[in-house]
């Protein structure tokens, strides 16, 4: 396990590189098994007992697989929103869109990641989201997160309601002792790996 991570950008970039390598070494079979265990823990959470709008990500490369979670939530009547990268003014942000069908309401978008189709999905405001599942390259035991460096999720998470539950999905190899926070970072409320809930 990697020890404490200091808050400078160079160090975070090194961690990103190392985590991408570590994650790429997980076989597809092992990734599906670990993802399945993470989903079991997720659906065991008491916070899911009532209907809600859940924002989830569409997994890319070797991220924790979320396809089964999205399908199960839709089958249970829970709302599912997915992120779409859009240009606003002179920058880019992620915008949540509510989908009804994972097979029909998504298309290949930014960076080759599947995104909601704006013709069929409905845009929702961040304040409508009850629970958001957040991807990342590394998470600390203090529930801080190192993302991919664009700041998309940190900006979005500052707009959700205070009672919106923020959950990070990660493999156990992505968990660090501590990640020092800065004013731009938004910590998770819960982190779920294939071995534990933090």
Main traits of this protein?
globular; seven-stranded mixed β-sheet; 24% helix; Rossmann fold; 198 residues; 12 strands; alpha/beta
Describe the structure.
With 198 residues, the protein is of the alpha/beta class. The protein has one domain: NagB/RpiA/CoA transferase-like (Rossmann fold, 3-Layer(aba) Sandwich). It is built from 4 helices and 12 strands. Strands 6-3-2-1-7-10-12 form a 7-stranded mixed β-sheet. It is globular. The N terminus is likely disordered.
Kindly state the number of beta strands: 12
Q: Please give the share of residues in helix.
A: 10-25%
What series of H and E elements makes up the topology?
A: HHEHEEEEEEEEHEEE
Q: Which CATH first-tier class would you pick?
A: Alpha Beta
- Main sheet summary: 7 strands, mixed
Q: Indicate the low-confidence ranges by residue numbers.
A: 1-10
Alpha carbon gap, first and last residue: 15 Å
Question: Helical region count?
Answer: 4
The tally of structural domains comes to 1
Strand order of the largest sheet: 6-3-2-1-7-10-12
CATH superfamily (homologous) name: NagB/RpiA/CoA transferase-like
Task: Let me know the average pLDDT.
Answer: 91
Strand-residue proportion: 15-25%
Instruction: Kindly name the structural category.
Output: alpha/beta
CATH architecture: 3-Layer(aba) Sandwich
Mass-distribution shape: globular
């Amino acid at each position: 396990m990697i020890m404490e991570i200091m808050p400078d950008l160079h160090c975070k970039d090194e961690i990103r590189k190392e985590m991408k390598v570590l994650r790429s070494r997980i076989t597809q079979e092992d990734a599906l098994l670990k993802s399945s265990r993470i989903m079991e823990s997720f659906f065991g959470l008491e916070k899911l007992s009532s209907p809600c709008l859940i924002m989830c990500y569409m997994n890319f490369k070797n991220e924790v697989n979320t396809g089964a979670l999205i399908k199960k939530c839709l089958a249970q009547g829970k709302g599912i929103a997915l992120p779409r990268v859009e240009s606003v003014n002179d920058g880019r942000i992620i915008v949540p869109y509510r989908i009804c069908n994972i097979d029909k309401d998504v298309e290949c978008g930014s960076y080759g990641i599947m995104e909601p189709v704006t013709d069929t999905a409905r845009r929702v405001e961040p304040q409508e989201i009850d629970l958001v599942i957040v991807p990342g390259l590394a998470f600390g035991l203090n529930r801080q997160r190192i993302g991919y460096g664009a700041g998309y999720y940190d900006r979005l998470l500052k707009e959700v309601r205070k009672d919106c539950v923020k959950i990070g999905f990660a493999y156990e190899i992505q968990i660090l002792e501590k990640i020092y926070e800065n004013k731009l970072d938004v910590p998770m409320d819960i982190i779920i790996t294939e071995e534990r809930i933090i």
